[in-house]
Specification:
single chain, mainly alpha
Length: 161
């Protein structure tokens, strides 16, 4: 099976963010949440690695172009200045292409960081939602064994009608 691309993973996780408020389906959301968060964190790490590699490539390419441009200026008998060399490096199409790759990689890092954080916030929301759903409209806790035991005791003693 082919490895999932970053775009495919993004779409998958974007669709995975939907959360059901139906108690019958909430178990599936809880079980799958950790996996989705882990996947987002993993893709964030991959994106950061790609960004770092692109940054390194830009640095290496800039150094190579700097040397080549300096050598060419000296060979042509032109005056070599830092500003002139820097400007000529930036004008090189190969350098511009590498910088665009770096910017795209940085964008993916930011996207994945946001996705990871949204899943982190989602975990807090799930926790709050479950706490809210565990109380009925009168504020009494549902499914609380201590509460149920007290109610049965009151019923047996005839205190509660």
């Amino acid at each position: 099976m082919a490895e999932e691309t970053m775009e495919q993973a993004w779409e998958h996780l974007e669709n995975g963010k939907k959360f059901s408020t139906d108690l019958a389906e909430i178990d599936d959301d809880l079980i799958g949440h950790a996996q989705l968060y882990g996947s987002a964190a993993s893709w964030y790490a991959r994106a950061a690695e790609r960004r770092d590699a692109a940054k390194f490539q830009v640095t290496v390419l800039a150094a190579q172009l700097d040397k080549d441009i300096r050598d060419q200026l000296v060979a042509d008998g032109e005056k070599v200045t830092e500003d002139k060399v820097k400007a000529l490096v930036i004008l090189e199409p190969e350098y511009q292409k590498a910088v665009r790759r770096l910017h795209k990689a940085e964008q993916w890092v930011n996207n994945w960081d946001g996705m990871k954080e949204s899943y982190k916030q989602r975990s807090y929301m799930i926790k709050e939602f479950i706490q809210l759903r565990s109380f009925d409209y009168t504020g009494e806790r549902l499914g609380n064994s201590r509460y149920d035991a007290v109610q049965r005791s009151l019923d047996r003693r005839g205190v509660r009608q």
